[in-house]
Fold these 2 entries.
Entry 1:
Amino acid sequence: MRTSMLYALSISLALNLFTGCNKLPTPEKKVITIDPTLGVPSMNGSLSDITATAFEWKAMEDPRVTGYHIYRSTQSNEDKKLQRIATIESRFATHFVDENLVPNTQYQYRFSSKGKGDTESNASETMSVTTLPMIAPVSFFQSVGNMPRSAKVLWRPHPNAKINSYIIDRLNVNDQKWSEIATITGRLNAEFIDRDLKDGQIYYYRVRAVTYDKLITEPSETSKLSTKPLPPEIKNITSSSDLPKAIALSWEPSGINDLDHYNIYRSNTSNGIYTYHVKLNESKFTDITKEDGQVFFYKITAVDKDDLESPQSTPIVQGSSLVKPKAPTSFDGKIGPNGVDLTWVNSDPRTVSYTVIKTTKKSWIDRLLVEINNITDTQFHDGDVNPNVEYLYEVICVDKDGIRSLPTLPIALHYETK
């Protein structure tokens, strides 16, 4: 009889189907019955990938079969214990894919038919399969440094057609942690330019290849680079204080090979705001001023062909145009019918001549001003005077550049007829 062929065998799903001790977490025990009359799955074979293995078996025509149980163990288990990992609830199924496996690892599998209730067939023969090794890292990786605020990394396109993209990692030198900064799609792409970096900073890079099914290779070798530094600070700046209505600046030329120009920044005060003043291609400059004795403060920078600008020069440089000569002293004058006699004392060695300013007061509001120039003596006689008229006299020193001092205090002179 068919029922006489049934052998009741109570076993634990996890412990009694196969021998050995299981050190993995033990699932809840369940009593099952082995029905030796149920057909054992006949395996056609398997096909392994890096993290998955596919199995195929012959279809079961026995209507008592309701599906299949799959058991697996790994070679890392010391006792080779197999555990149920999946159940297929259809006897018409003939394929199973086990995913999320470890690359380059050996696994053992057995399959059984699932009957009605808690019955199943004897297990198939053990199948030993090994997943494929992980795809090798990118074999060639290098970086290009000394670029302005950027870095370029290059690699050889991965030869494996499964590669779909690349992950670019950069090391943060402050905390020594890697971070993903970019993903480059396309196996044949082979470069990446990292931008907005710091000047003269060291960076480390590596690349990881990614497959279409999101598997990530080990990183490539690390490549180190440094971004282009700023031009060095300008040194040895000199400024003048003895030029008429001008300030001459000069400095030590920048030693960089790709110098493009210099920038001069200027302020009215040493601690004020320094605004851009002029761009030039040589290491000297004459700043024209509007006033005598005008003072300016300067900072100078060098700019290279990549538009990297050096720090502003230190210390601050002060320059000034030539100050006015000092006004004459001891200015005095006398008036009489024969005219006016003026005398004074020279107080500045720069003086080469004098100018007398004569103001005639014709009325309260009407005045006539006359300048008498090119006086080389420290005295002057003015015979063009009239009685009952008030005159004002001032004297100015003039240097060789035509710079005039401030005038002396005016002297008021007049005489009356009797």
Entry 2:
Amino acid sequence: MWLGVLAGAAVALALPAAAEAHGITGRQDVPLPTWLFLWSAAVVLVVSFVALATLWPRPRLQADSWRPLEGRFGRAVASPVVGALCGTVGAGLFALVVVAGLRGSSNPAENIAPTFVYITFWLGLLPLSLLLGDVFRALNPWRVVARAVAWLASRAAGGPVEAPFAYPERLGRWPAVVGIVAFGWLELAANGGDVPATIAQAALVYSVATWIGMALYGIEEWCDRGEAFSVYFNLIARISPWERRGDRVGVQRPLSGLAHWRPGPGAVTFVCALIGIVSFDGFSSGPTYNGWIPSLQEAVEGVGFGPVFALELVFGLSMLATVALVVAFFSLGAWGVARVSGGGSVRDLARLFAHTLAPIALAYTLAHYVSFFAFQGQDILRLASDPLGDGVDIFGTAGREIDFTVISTTFIWYFQVAAIVAGHVCGLILAHDRAVALFDDPRRAARSQYVMLAVMVCFTTLALWLLSEQSKL
């Protein structure tokens, strides 16, 4: 079995060899060759696996380790006053994005909506969630508006107003899957996805759908399982040691929050979609995919679609195909667990191990967008002073320019490699901990992870190859 795992790793590592022959554009100052990073990453994963099998015989993340913070700080952070302030900020920022999109400049570079949504919101909340826990729950504009309406309704009715329906278990997280894929389509495939008016209209459509879900099934229930961004940021926040429960904030072992994430229908697809969307963004930025686009677009046009919609369809379907490939690849790892351990269905095991992909999804996103966030993210200071692009200068920063020297290309490459390897090591830790909890025999638990290790090595190699691929254009 070990021979098969190492053979799989060797096949995966052979893929980037061709990419190395062409070099990495814009990263010539990297002091070590790319192939060395690739092999080192694989070795780190294999060594981590061996160390876990030897030194981690019992589960350490499955038990509840949360304990509340003592003193006033924990209560103050979770107080209604702080919650109301955060909710007001979140609702205000959402209103600003919608107004700017509908009434401001149509130029994406002069309107705050595209930069705020795709950089400040989508990327900026990730490190905050990792460091501070589920901050989006407090800032969530849809939740705060729904709670305000529910409070008014309860006052008018003279008591709490219950949701008319219980959340159907078969729905699971499928509504969140639809929401996150739709966001990926808007960002990566839609024609004019960066146009401020399009972003504002999409936000309004999403808001209506979200409030309908909250009205039917309850605010908190829909946030926990149906609202795409709540599910996403809560999943990432579970890596953090911070967690709020009721009116208290407490600490727990890092990663242990993920071990308590409730699997269910759509959970595997949701996490795989996070990886697949970012993977497609990297692949579509490279010469290989761009070389395919003309023929793919021509084929779609041959069915009868116009060139603009045909191109959007090519990108959108390619993104969905990438997500499907990630699902299939992870299912292969679950099949390996089922086959070696001799117990459980592939679907059930895939759900039980779905949380192990969360650190990988985070690592892919951080690695892929680090330079985008570091450079383009600075532009939010300029746009905050002139959010509609109509020439005002509220904070005196409307003339601020982007400083492209804040980080070097060498730092970017090292950060990307470190993030990807760290994410996959965390995934291995979570998978091993779940395995030793499911299977009584530590040796059986370790054997169940052989195929999963090969999957992790391939994921790591793919991520590094995509980073080198996208830099060639």
